[in-house]
Amino acid sequence: MFHRLLSVVRRQRNGRGWQKWSSVRSGAFVAEAHSVALPAEAHVVICGGGIMGTSVAYHLSKMGWKDIVLLEQGRLAAGSTRFCAGILSTARHLTIEQKMADYSNKLYHQLEQETGIQTGYIRTGSIFLAQTQDRLISLKRVNSRLNVIGIPSEIISPRKVAELHPLLNVHDLVGAMHVPEDAVVSSADVALALASAASQNGVQIYDRTSILHVMVRKGQVTGVETDKGQIQCQYFVNCAGQWAYELGLSNEEPVSIPLHACEHFYLLTRPLETPLQSNAPTIVDADGRIYIRNWQGGILSGGFEKNPKPIFTEGKNQLEIQNLQEDWDHFEPLLSSLLRRMPELEALEIVKLVNCPETFTPDMRCLMGESPSVQGYFVLAGMNSAGLSFGGGAGKYLAEWMVHGYPSENVWELDLKRFGALQSSRTFLRHRVMEVMPLLYDLKVPRWDFQTGRQLRTSPLYDRLDAQGARWMEKHGFERPKYFVPPDKDLLALEQSKTFYKPDWFDIVESEVKCCKEAVCVIDMSSFTKFEITSTGDQALEVLQYLFSNDLDVPVGHIVHTGMLNQGGGYENDCSIARLSKRSFFMISPTDQQVHCWAWLKKYMPEDSNLILEDVTWKYTALNLIGPRAVDVLSELSYAPMTPDHFPSLFCKEMSVGYANGIRVMSMTHTGEPGFMLYIPIEYALHVYNEVMSVGQKYGIRNAGYYALRSLRIEKFFAFWGQDLNTLTTPLECGRESRVKLDKGMDFIGRDALSSEMRGIVQRVAGF
C-alpha cells in the first residue's frame, strides 16, 4: 500500500506544489521598521511574533501595562506557528498543562468575536486510541485529571469510536478516551488575532527587525540592541522559539535556555471522495505514533517517530522557517501506521509532506519564567510541539508573573529555573531531544527515567555503589540510587519492569525500609543543594531572618527547619539551616532547588562585600545514616557518645569519623526516623563510607535508595518541596505552624500574609 501511495506523491513533485494552507498576512497593526522609526524607550520589549510572543503582548496589555513593543525578525506568525498542525488538545499528563490548554481553548473560541479576524476555530473533539490495556490505564489516569478540573471527557468503547469516526479501523483497539471540547484552529490566524487585539490596546509591533543582543547592567535588563537601533527597557521577553537558545547566549550576560530543534513531519491530502466533515474528531493513535485531523475535506496526519532527526545544532538558521527537505523513507513507518488505521486512504492523493522544525526541552515541559541570572529577562519557549495548545494559557501565566510577581497557578514544573547551565550543552541537548520526541507518544508509566545525558553529575561513591547493585535515577543532572538489587535478582528483568501495577522492585524497597526501621541503612544524598552564608558581622543573621519564617537566632550548633516564603506566604523553598558559628550558616535544600534558591537569595541579599553566599554542593558528600542502630555505628567510629543526652535532635557538630576530621554530623534524617546526616569533604568520602559499612556489619547495615527514603518520609508526613509543598502552599495549611515565628522581633517575607491567615483561622475557630 505504501509504495502505491508513494508513487502518486512522486508524480506530483513537478506539479503545482503545495498551496499554503495557513496564510501569513499582517494587518495595518504592524509597522515595518524600515519605514517607521523604533521608539527609544519601552517598558517591555518582546522578541518573537509567533503565538507565544503575541499571547504575552495580548495579556500584558489586557492587564493594563503600557509602552510594550513586540519585535519580529521576519513576518508575524512566520516561524513554527505558521507550520503548526492546528490541533488544540487539553489531554495532558500535567495538571498545569491541562489548565493552560483549557484556557487557550476558551480564549481562541472567543477571539474571532473580539477581534473580527477569522481563526478557523472548529470544535471537533479528540479521540485518543488505546491498543493495549496499559495504554487504556494511562488514558483513564488522564481522564480522571481532566474531570477533576472540569474538562469533559470519557472513556469509550471501540464501537463508539467507530460511530464517531467511521473511517477508522478499530479491530485492534481495547478502548479510547473522548474529549468532546477539543478543537482545531489556524495557528497563524490566532497569532494575528492576538497581535491585532494587543495593537488595539497600545502594543507597538514591528516586523523585519532583528534583536542582536539584550543589554544588561548589574544583573538587570536595560535595553535591546537591534539592527535598526537601540530600545531602552526594563523587561525583555524571549519568545524566539527555535532561536531562543542562541538569543540567550548573545546577551552581555548569557541566559541559559535549554532547547533544541528536531524535524517534524506531517502530510496533507486531497479531499476524500466523500469529503471529511469539518467537525470530524481529531484522532491520536499514540501506540501507532500518529495523529490525524480533518484538512479541507482530506486529512492532515503526522506523528512522533522513534528515530527523530535533530537540526540546527550548529546554531541560528533562516529568519523565517521554510519547509525543509522531504524525507519519505523517514516518514514511511508513520505512513504505514496511518494506512493501517484508515485503510480507505490507500488511493488518496497527497498534496505535500511538510517538514518543519519543532523545539523540544530536556524534560518534555515548556520553559517559562524569569532568568535566574538577569532580572527582568523572561522566557517563554520550548513548547514540545504543543505551542498552539499552551499558547493562550502560557502567555497569561507569564504576563501575571511579570505584572504581579507570581502567576495565579503553581508553575514550578515549567519554571526555567528548574534547569541550570549544565543542561545547556549542545551535545547534551541534541542527544536528549532524540529521546524526548518519541517519549511524547510513549507510554507514561510511573517512575520512568531518561536514558540520555546520564552520569553528568555523580557522587564520589558512584562506582562503589554501582558495583553493589545500585539502580539509578537522575535529578537535576545528579545520579541518585533508587534501590539496590541483591545478587540473586535478575537485573535485566528489573530494569524492564515498567508497569502500572506492583513493580518487581517492590519487595527490594520493602526490605530496605524494614532495615531502616529495625537496624541501620546508609543512603547517599550528595545531590542535595548546599549553601554557606557567612559575614564579618551580623549581616548573615539579619538577611536570613528576613528571608526565612522561622527564628534563626539560635545557639551555635542548632539546626532549624524553616520555609523560605514569598509575599503570599507560600513556599519558595523548604530547607534546613545549621548555625555553624555566630556569623556562619549552612543551608540544605532539595536537589532541584539549586538554581531557584540561589537566584532567590541573590535577589534579596544586599550588595555587601562583607556578606558571602557560596554554593558548596560539590564540596560535600552527604551520607544519611538511618535507623535505631545508627547511634551505635557512629559512636564506635567517633569514640564519642551519640545518645540523645549527648547529641540531641536537630544538633550539628564537626567530628572525626574514622581517620577523617571535619565531618559535619547532624542529628536528622529528612525522614522522621532516628539517625544522622554526615556531610563529608569529598576527599574523605570513600574512606568514611568504607568505615561506616565495615563497622555497621555487626549491626545489620545495608545500602538503601531514594525509593525507601520516599516511603519513610511519607509515613511520617515529612513533606518535601516540589512534591507536597509549592509556591501556593503556606505553612499554616500543612501543619507547620511551629516553623513560623511571627513574634521573632523582625519582619520577614510573607509575614503579613501569614498574620492575616492566622487571624482568619482564629475567627473561624471562635465562630464555632
From TrEMBL:
Q: Which Gene3D superfamilies match?
A: Aminomethyltransferase beta-barrel domains, D-Amino Acid Oxidase, subunit A, domain 2, FAD/NAD(P)-binding domain, Probable tRNA modification gtpase trme, domain 1
What is the recorded name of this protein? Pyruvate dehydrogenase phosphatase regulatory subunit, mitochondrial isoform X3
InterPro entries for this protein: FAD-dep_OxRdtase (IPR006076), FAD/NAD-bd_sf (IPR036188), FAO_M (IPR032503), GCVT_N (IPR006222), Rhodanese-like_dom (IPR001763), TrmE/GcvT-like (IPR027266)
Q: Which SUPFAM superfamilies match?
A: FAD-linked reductases, C-terminal domain, FAD/NAD(P)-binding domain, Folate-binding domain
Q: Which PANTHER family match?
A: PYRUVATE DEHYDROGENASE PHOSPHATASE REGULATORY SUBUNIT, MITOCHONDRIAL, SARCOSINE DEHYDROGENASE-RELATED
Q: Does the keyword Protein transport apply?
A: no
According to the entry, every stretch annotated as the Rhodanese domain falls at: 44-87
Q: Which organism is it from?
A: Vicugna pacos (Alpaca)
Keywords (alphabetical) are: Pyruvate
